[in-house]
Amino acid sequence: MEQRTVLVVLFEGVQSLDVTGPVEVFAGAAHAIGDPDGAYRLHTASLDGGPVRTSGGLTLLPDSSLADAPAPHTLLVPGGQGTRPEDRGLIDWLREHGPRAERLVSVCTGAIRLAEAGLLEGRRVTTHWAYCDQLAKDFPGIEVDPDPIYVRDGHVATSAGVTAGIDLALALVEEDLGRQAALTIARYLVVFLRRPGNQAQFSAQLAAQTARREPLREVQQWITEHPDDDLSVDALAVRARLSPRHFARAFQAETGMTPGKYVERVRIEHARRLLEDTADGVEEVSRACGYGTPEAMRRSFVKTLGASPAEYRRRFHRTPHVTSTTHR
């Protein structure tokens, strides 16, 4: 079996989980395929070969300097503190050597370093939600999509913050070695196999602020756990022990979105998971998510995702008997 070299770039202030998450995934491939030599040769390198201190205070000792590192199949750039003047040597190295890698990968704000090196021009990418606006502003030639947890554009793969690097690494293992290998690694790491790249960085609960008052927080949780229930303002107001008018105003003031918008996000999020992970029919999914009719769910999907439920399932259904498609 071909052994792919994965070169992980280390630098002062790197986010430790951006490094260790993907590394553990690639390292787990040896166990998954029953080959002690593994499908991947992992190598870490800093600019001068010296140890680096992570943003969390850990010290990482690289295998070598970047100058002495082996030519990578997959070049992985993790995130961390923004590019600083003293990092110009790293950016120059990426500019020279990045185009030679068969696969170019970034985790979190590692995308900013790739952009600095001119390696993302004309590409569709993502990064941590807090830095998407900055990336788009500083590099107008890059199409920045703030929503997905990871994006594939040709040989370039970029991911959102921190744990999204694990999702992307699992996707790359599945691409290289097949679904069963990736599933074995995910089970060992006790993570999902796998959140699709199109999944939003924020769930409905994370996208909204958490209400200050306990009755409103309880309503938020109720909506999430009962998407098929009566979630009208009147019904939710009764649950919150408020008048409908007072409830609607208080909910928006404390969560940052109207009750209707929150319900819509919860329902479409739930419907996406069912379409991705089950063989339930569209009509059954629409009932389970509180849409009432398949047509109501179709309108919501087209409005929010630009695709009908049937089209969405064709693209992202992940059950074993369905052939997967390549993410955009």
UniProtKB/TrEMBL annotation:
The answer to whether the entry has keyword Transcription is yes
Under the heading CDD domains, the entry gives:
GATase1_AraC_1
Report the PROSITE patterns cross-referenced here: HTH_ARAC_FAMILY_2
Lineage top rank: taxon: Bacteria
Methyltransferase in keyword set: no
| Name of one Pfam family that matches | DJ-1_PfpI
Give the matching InterPro entries.
Class_I_gatase-like (IPR029062), DJ-1/PfpI (IPR002818), Homeodomain-like_sf (IPR009057), HTH_AraC (IPR018060), INH-QAR (IPR052158)
- GO MF term set: DNA-binding transcription factor activity; sequence-specific DNA binding
Per UniProt, the keywords (alphabetical) are:
Transcription, Transcription regulation
Per the database record, which ranges form the HTH araC/xylS-type domain? Answer: 217-315
What is the recorded name of this protein? GlxA family transcriptional regulator
Q: What is the lineage of its organism?
A: Bacteria, Bacillati, Actinomycetota, Actinomycetes, Kitasatosporales
